[in-house]
Design a protein that fits this description.
The chain is of the alpha+beta class. The protein folds into 2 domains: 199 residues, Porin; 139 residues, no CATH class. Helix 3 crosses helix 5. It is elongated, with a radius of gyration of 29 Å.
């Protein structure tokens, strides 16, 4: 058993290194729903010290993205494992159908590494004891109906590594909460390690470089600062009031409202991601002056589609006025801009 544990550890470390190198930029995985099939092998722990218990299985799976870095995942499938015991004169075979419900969080979007935590109920459909050697003339016995814990409940923790192709590898461990040891075996699903390959049926979309760049910078912005430049009407708000409105209605990233004398200095900083002009600006060199919130790049140039490059005022009571119409309208504009950033990052 100690040898097998060392072997499994070696395989896990090897796969970690391989898929860290070969993993695909997850910005190309744009589908919210992924579904497909999984095939896997298992290695049980704690059943028999004389022989390692291996198993095989297959699942149907579906994973749905509920946030930019978070997913919910379910699997439904079949597993079979067997082991020899009683001085290798008897063989026990167990088969089950099971359901897996898990949440999945991305640890590294660029390399496609995710952590999974889940719950796995399983129901044993077949438990068979077969006599070996000189006793092979004795009939096999089926005892699944006599099991105390025919329905088992397990907790699962694992890691997923996205491959360059339309699939991924899962490495994880399942711990069964209800199990009773009887004559050297568990009358439930044993604790076990799993190595699975997931093959998705739905393929990736072809992503343009513009979309990839937009996703990359919008993701980077979540961990950086958006610098706002005020070009609004003085009758709408004061500088301090605008700062307060941003504090209450903007949450996509950290922010900073710049004074005019700070713009040149900040634009020369090497790690700036985006600026935003709130107030009057041009959508492009050929557009007339208009009002709203305009997203700019690090060089103070207006962004274009697929960015939310111009957010118009949703509650401008002044018609075609270039002013926003007061604090409440300005707050609504900022909130709309914030929601568009979140939605855009989720869609890309």
């Amino acid at each position: 058993m100690k040898y097998c544990m060392r072997y499994l550890l070696f395989i896990s470390v090897f796969l970690w290194n391989v898929f860290t190198v070969l993993a695909q930029d997850s910005s190309t995985f744009t589908s919210n729903l992924n579904y497909g099939v999984s095939g896997y092998v298992t290695m049980a722990t704690g059943i028999n010290d004389n022989a390692t218990t291996y198993g095989v299985g297959g699942d149907l799976f579906a994973a749905y993205r509920i946030a930019p870095r978070n997913y919910v995942q379910s699997k439904l499938g079949y597993k079979r494992y067997s082991y020899e015991y009683n001085d290798l004169t008897q063989k026990r075979t167990m088969e089950d159908i099971h359901l897996s419900l898990a949440v999945k969080h991305s640890l590294n979007e660029e390399k496609g590494i995710r952590v999974l935590l889940g719950y796995e109920p399983a129901y044993i459909i077949n438990a068979q004891n077969t006599y070996l050697g000189y006793l092979d003339s004795l009939p096999s016995t089926y005892f699944q109906k006599q099991l105390t814990n025919r329905l088992s409940h397990s907790l699962y923790a694992g890691l997923e590594f996205q491959s360059k192709h339309n699939g991924s590898i899962d490495i994880g461990y399942s711990y069964t909460l209800n199990k009773t040891t009887t004559n050297g075996y568990y009358d439930a699903i044993p604790n076990h390690f799993t190595v699975a390959y997931n093959f998705r049926f739905n393929t990736n979309k072809v992503i343009s470089p513009e979309v990839l760049q937009a996703k990359a910078t919008l993701k980077k912005l979540t961990q950086d600062t958006l610098y706002f430049i005020n070009r609004g009407c003085s009758e709408d708000y004061t500088f301090d009031q605008l700062d307060s409105l941003l504090s209450k209605n903007y949450s996509y990233s950290a922010y900073r409202l710049l004074q005019d004398n700070e713009i040149a200095q900040v634009s020369n900083q090497p790690n700036v991601v985006h600026f935003a002009i709130i107030g009057q600006h041009y959508g492009s060199t050929s557009d007339p002056l208009s009002s709203g919130i305009y997203l700019l790049d690090s060089k103070l140039k207006s962004t274009e589609f697929p960015y939310p490059y111009h957010t118009t005022n949703p509650k401008n009571s002044n018609g075609f006025s270039l002013c926003f119409g007061g604090l409440s309208n300005t707050a609504a504009l900022i909130s709309t801009f914030d929601q568009r950033l979140k939605k855009k990052f989720f869609e890309l």
